[in-house]
Amino acid sequence: MAFDSLSSRLQGILKKIRGQAKITEKNIDDMLVEVRRALLEADVNYKVVQEFVEDVKNQAIGQKVIQSVSPSQMIVKIINDKLAELLGEGDNEIHFARTGVTSIMLVGLQGTGKTTSAGKLANMYKKEGKKVLLVAGDVYRPAAIDQLIQLGEQIGVQVYSDRSGTSPVEIAKKAYFKAQKENYNIVIIDTAGRLEIDETLMKELQDIETSIPLNEELLLVDALAGQNAVNVAKEFHTKVHLTGIIMSKLDSDARGGAALSIKKISGLPIKFAGVGEKIEDIETFHPDRMASRILGMGDVVSLVEKAQENLDQEKAVKATKKIMSGNFGIDDIVNLLHQIRRLGPLGKLITMLPGMPKINSDQVEQGEKNINIIEVISNSMTPKERKNPDIIKANRKIRIAKGAGRSVQDVNRVIKSYEMLRDNIKKMNPMMRNMIAAQAKKGGENK
Ligand code: GDP
């Protein structure tokens, strides 16, 4: 199965580091030497490996310590996240047309799995209740047309074909027109492959691109081709407007080097993975799930995620309690503002207090700007001034404004807001104060 050998190597390496009582920089370096070797042996691009190892190291060293999580668990999480990043976390969605026909064109070298994948996708979308039209655009190989017609019959999907010498561009146009007229949801166009990239093939694809609106142009690459597949993707992408990759034969590739390099090198996200020869052997590609499958430590990863969330929540609860006590400085406000976006309803409650910057949905941008201003001004204060803003008189204000690159008015405004918030909280009925503090705690527990 895909990534098998890399997976067992990485799991071995991480098991070793998890067995160590203490994690030092030396431990991390030793581990990274092994990670580096494992990735190179998995045929991951050299530059990609180099960057990966540096990223992991920087993050591992810069990582804040979370009490309930061990440093080795933290490292598992970092490696997991970085693997997901390599696999292209982000833009893996298929972009469907808002109305009317969605067209998907499959391109790639011969034998990479275009025709098979066209059938697999058609079958998948048909099962989702969509009306699908397959288009036989590889007119040079009669066998390819036969193969697609056969697939269409097998899955009960209509195939548009034309053996009368019509050009692939005309075929694509006619098929698209038919799809529009007959209310198809999705058109999947199979195109001709060559043994290598050549100008005629590229020209043909470019002509189709300008003849019909394409929602997706997916390049088929064979996982077994390793770095060759990556190079083909890079080159194709300079000639035609690809939107993503279908990586076939991931089931037969134990190394996974192509999958781990292709996003960084070609810029193209993998959108689907072919995982066998049967019609249902296609998967929507999920980098995060794939990463945790490779590491086989999903439990550790979710443990760390949970601890990180809890930590944020704890900080927020603490900051709220402190502010509600009426004894707080500007540093506590900045602290709380940092957490507010994660707080949801509680965040709203806090921002309703007079003196706090307002962040409702219409004013998010302005609210964020206010937070930034408060933050740079606070950063320009001494710790003493932050804790006790009452000591900030004229001279200090000028110094703070200069340091923050803001006006003295801005400094005044921040101090005024602080005073207003403090006065209002002090004036508040103690029961109300306790209630808000308790609400913060409850919010934390509900998470
Ligand atoms: P085309 O020339 O690009 O249209 O390639 P085909 O669709 O004809 O596929 C070439 C060969 O690869 C066929 O034997 C397919 O069964 C096989 N194939 C395609 N996709 C996969 C896959 O995901 N896994 C495996 N194991 N074989 C595949």
TrEMBL record:
One annotated GO biological process: SRP-dependent cotranslational protein targeting to membrane
Annotated GTP binding sites: 108-115, 190-194, 248-251
GO CC terms in record: signal recognition particle
Enzyme Commission identifier(s): 3.6.5.4
Main location as per UniProt: cytoplasm
Signal peptide (residue range): none
Coiled-coil zones: none
NCBIfam families according to UniProt: ffh
Family that this chain belongs to: Belongs to the GTP-binding SRP family. SRP54 subfamily.
Protein name per the record: Signal recognition particle protein
Gene source species: Candidatus Scatoplasma merdavium
Gene responsible for this protein: ffh
